[in-house]
Amino acid sequence: DTGTVKGSDWEAKTEELASRGISLSDLLEFYSNLGVCIMPSFQPDVHTTNDVVRLGIIPRTSSAGSSYAEFVNDGKKVIPKKMVTHNWQNLFRDLLATV
Questions:
Q1: How far apart are CA 73 and CA 99, in angstroms?
Q2: Residues near 99 by beta carbon (within 8 Å), at least 6 away in sequence
Q3: In 10 A of CB 47, how many CB atoms?
């Protein structure tokens, strides 16, 4: 049954994604820099999570070819204590407020 056997590639990717935790202090520091040195055009009542990823996170991490969590953790694996889900079209400030 191919539905239950995922394979070693799937397992490796799952483990990689599961080790991309970020501390609350790193998240708050990122948010405090929005509109200043990160994404100077940032407006909390306008920009969505998608906007912040495309205009704030990707420009900071593209040269390293990493996720933001890997970037702030210097490539170290960090297992998160909580899982936060989100909608890409919601305001980024609302996502931060829920955290």
A1: 19
A2: 24, 27, 84
A3: 20
Nearest Cα neighbor of 34 from 93, 84, 97, 94 is 93
| Cα–Cα dist 79/61, whole Å | 20
Q: How far apart are CA 81 and CA 93, in angstroms?
A: 21
Q: What is the largest CA-CA distance in the chain?
A: 53
Range 90-94 contact pairs with CB under 8 angstroms and sequence separation of 24 or more: 90/48, 90/49, 91/44, 91/45, 91/46, 91/47, 91/48, 91/49, 92/34, 92/44, 92/47, 92/48, 92/49, 92/51, 92/52, 93/31, 93/44, 93/45
pLDDT tens per residue, range 18-75: 999 999 999 999 999 999 999 999 999 999 999 999 999 999 999 999 999 999 999 9
What radius of gyration do the chain's Cα atoms show? 15
